[in-house]
Amino acid sequence: MKLSEPQALNRVAAYCSRAERSESSVRKKLLAWELTEDAVRRIIARLKEEKYLDNTRFARGFIHDKLQFNKWGKAKIIFELKKLNVPETIYNPIFDDLAGDEFEKQLAHILSLKEKSVKAKNDYDKKTKLIRFALGRGFSMDLSIKCVNKLLGGDYEEHFS
Question: What is the pLDDT of residue 100?
Fold first, then answer.
């Protein structure tokens, strides 16, 4: 579908006003409307100027939502932000502002729920499955081991010596 620059600006402003959007998703939409690269640049500059588009605001909301609602770990959130072409300089300070135990609290909660449904032959097998689950959610190995040890007791790392 080919749109003129004013039409595209109006449509994309409405698109951005419904929810926070990343600059790359807006750029992709504008290019799909067969606009020139110059027109895309002008529209994005205008959206930023009028506060419709802000990658920092988008990243802050994205991180909050994925942590609170999807129960994702830092690694998975960073992976998704990179897919959306959000620069590290934008999201690293947001992660630094998060309370250090925020991810640990979240992981402890989801592991306590998951632990009830895990079927395992022994404690080692159960711990391994829980750690694998935590890693799949994007939590670090260190944090995963720490939370599993708190939940089930013992020291998982003993088995690697």
Answer: 67
Tokens of 125: 């097998």
Supply the DSSP string of 6-32, one letter for each residue: HHHHHHHHHHHHHS---HHHHHHHHHH
Buried b (16+ CB within 10 A) or exposed e, 35-59: beeebbeebbeebeeeebbbbeebb
Global confidence as pTM: 0.86
- For residues 58 and 68, give the distance between their C-alpha atoms in angstroms, rounded to a whole number: 15
pLDDT at 133 over 80: yes
Please write the tens of the pLDDT for every residue from 62-118. Answer: 999 999 999 999 999 999 999 999 999 999 999 988 866 889 999 999 999 999 999
DSSP 154: S
Burial 109-127 (b: 16+ CB within 10 A, else e): ebbeeebeeeeeeeeeebb
Domain ranges of the chain: 5-49, 55-97, 102-160
Residue 124's SS3 state is helix
